[in-house]
Amino acid sequence: MKSYLLPVAILLFLASCAPDLRFHHKVDQMVAAGDYQGAYALVEENREEYTENSAALFYADTGTLAHYAGRPEESIEMLLQAERIIEELYTTSISKEATTFIVNDTMAPYKGEDFENVMLNLFLALDYLEIGEIDEALVEARKVDSKLNLINSSYPPDEKNRYNEDAFVRYLMGILYEIGGSMEDLNDAFISYENAEQIYAGDYRKNYNTPVPISLEKNLLTMAGFMGGEEFSSYKKKYGSTNALSLSDKQQKAELYFIHYNGKSPEKVGGAIYAPMPDGYVIKIAFPQYRLRHYNIRSSIIRLTDVETGKTTKAETELGENIAAIAVESLENRKVRIAAKAIARATAKYLATKEAKRIAKKEQGELAGDIVGLLGNIAAAVTEQADLRCWKTLPAEIRIGTCNVDPGSYKIVASLLNRAGQVVRQISLGETALNAGEKKFFFFRTID
Fold first, then answer.
1. Distance (Å, rounded) from C-alpha 43 to C-alpha 445?
2. In which element (H, E) is residue 319 found?
3. Is residue 197 in some structural domain?
């Protein structure tokens, strides 16, 4: 092969190495049908499709599917492996990262979007919560804050992420501390609830259309009442219409939390800009953008029926974490960085093609030079691909609902509502016995 054609061949070969995860539409179908084990098995069967560069995504996908299937220990193992891979990539992938300046971003190992990196710890915290390891759940929740600080510290002042604090994780931390029950724990619970309320009322409402959940208002008022003083007066004035139990009354009842994973997280699609040069060369600049995926279910209402008395208690879920909005906003924040890299890469390809054309023209004549220039332009366009890898098994949103009931045995059913408020279908969450002072958590997933 002529030396001036070698770069073209290499570019085309490397471009063929991008992962092909088209089987994921079958995964979505299985998740919609509640067949989490089947979805997990399908991902396992297609493990090679992820390629070595997308290993973190494989473990993230299997980790969330195991979580939905009610296998928290297995989920923990997978999510921790995904986190280990990503952490190693931040220090060991310099050589592979260099190929992204030559070919495209798919050539580098996938480190995940910043928010995806954080979601690993959120789901780990929920896994540990499900198996009753509260201290480990708190460790994972605290990691979210430290990770967001570390990530943002690596960016210039004018390129910081808007997603720099997570309100839902702070809310979850408050619940975890409250479970501890000591004076120190209750004080920490109040601080966590207070921090969560401030983030929801500020960035979350403005950037992600996620206001303060009423359930958080209640918990904050309960803890503020326990703390007494100015804190209680301030929040009582602010949320006086919210009906909240005192801590002593709350401890006489059982408290239930319902975590509803709803919808499909957005997927990445490719966009491109074409810029013709004076010499006939066409520069292509590719970039990813998120496309929201449709889902019908918009909310859920949980009904608890006392087996002995027939009395019914209702809990309506509220938006706690708008993952879809966070994803879109996070990628938008990264556009300047993506564009700068794409422009540098396109320029390098353009200069390499011009040089190959010059050499071919010198060695083989005008026609050979034109052919090499054309092939180089085609190779540059074909290889300029946006990195469309993303964590597709995440939900679009996490909803949370709470209620306090007297001790006893209850049958629990979740009604799933569409945008018009009509019940689409129902899910049985089983029957459970509840004791005074107990906190119990239920998790369910919808994708339709």
1. 18
2. strand 318-321
3. no
Give which of 171, 173, 180 is closest to 201, Cα–Cα.
Answer: 171
Predicted TM-score of the model (pTM): 0.88
Closest C-alpha to 385, from 106, 98, 99: 106
User: Per-residue DSSP letters for 339-380?
Assistant: HHHHHHHHHHHHHHHHHHHHHHHHHH-HHHHHHHHHHHHHHH
Tens digits of residue pLDDT in 29-86 = 999 888 999 999 999 999 988 888 899 999 999 999 999 999 999 999 999 999 999 9
Instruction: Identify the helix (H) or strand (E) that includes residue 176.
Output: helix 167-180
Please report whether residue 18 resides in a domain: yes
| Dist. CA 293–CA 328, nearest whole Å | 12
pLDDT of residue 277: 76
pLDDT recorded at residue 54? 92
Question: In terms of Cα–Cα distance, which of 158, 178, 162 is closest to 170?
Answer: 178
Measured CA to CA, the distance from residue 210 to residue 312 in angstroms comes to: 29
DSSP states of 55-104: HHHHHHHHHHHHHHTT-HHHHHHHHHHHHHHHHHHHHH-HHHHHHTTTS-
CATH code at 107? 1.25.40.10
Domain that holds residue 50: 6-164+252-446
Nearest CA to 389 out of 169, 111, 86, 175 is that of: 111
Phi and psi at residue 441, to the nearest 5°: -120, 140
- Report if residue 148 sits inside a domain: yes
> Would residue 303 be called left, alpha or beta, if left means φ above 0 and alpha means ψ between -120 and 50 degrees?
beta
CA 126/CA 356 separation, integer angstroms: 55
Alpha carbon separation from 249 to 41, 414, 418 (Å, rounded): 46, 26, 35
Residue recorded with tokens 């083989």: 364
- For 12, 250, 332, 428, the CA distances from 18, given in Å and listed in that order, are 11, 54, 23, 42
Number of domain units in the chain:
1
pLDDT at 274: 80
Q: Which of 70, 52, 60, 67 is nearest to 24 (CA)?
A: 60
pLDDT of residue 62: 97
Q: What stretches in the chain show pLDDT beneath 50?
A: 1, 4-5, 12, 16, 94-95, 98-102
Between CA 146 and CA 448 the distance in angstroms is 34
